[in-house]
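I'd like us to work through together how a protein chain folds, taking it slowly. To get us started, please write out a protein record for me. Label the sequence line and the structure token line clearly, so we can match residues to local backbone shapes. Once you have written the record down, we can walk along the chain together.
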Amino acid sequence: MDLLVVGAGTMGRWFASAVAEPVDRVAFVDRDRDAAEAAVEAVDGHAAVLDASGTDPGDERETFTAVCIAVPMAAVGDAVAAHADRAERAILDVAGVAEPAVEAMRTYAPDRERASLHPLFSSANEPGTVATVVDDGGPVVDRLLEALRSRGNRLVETTASEHDEAMETIQARAHAAVLAYALTADEVPEGFRTPVSRRLAEAVEDVTGGNSRVYADVQEAFDGAEDVAAAARRIADADREAFERLYAETTEAFDGEDQG
């Protein structure tokens, strides 16, 4: 099997490395030639580099057994449209937003195996959970998923709509709440942490230690931040009785529920 990865950033490199076992050759396409060449060095692959116009420098477009789209969320539809014809058997994405990706793959690769994957971790923290939307499965997708599973990853099957709805809570709302706390937190004397504030501080470190563009993509792609702002205003405006009702409402909502 040969694999083309569209997007030579962190996630594209991770996917190429993660599925290396069943892949005989991997190629990268990226508008940034230096990024593509660096990805090749990182995973010992073969580079296919687009020119500035987004087309191949020659007339012939090389095809591959599978194509993986690893671009920012906002670009996933355009990337699928541009590269679906390179996929001989299967097309996947790891962009992190499922519904637009699946819709584009259905449109531009209707006769190919299709899957949208979302690793719910940074590449440095593998293994972890990979949300998996298999829109039209087959042997190529199965082999790639098995390669991810063999590295200790936990694959959670879902639908595109269920995935994107969940991301509103576990990403957009969670990140907004953590950043809001960070923006309002004052410096406190050494030793004044509580268990809750300590965990929040750790969450702040996790979020602010990432890539701001990725977090901006999440806020742009998924609703949720406004809900956090509205809930904070309800808490701020509540008198004692109203606060206790909100506390009880929160306790009941989280009782036995997995909120990610």
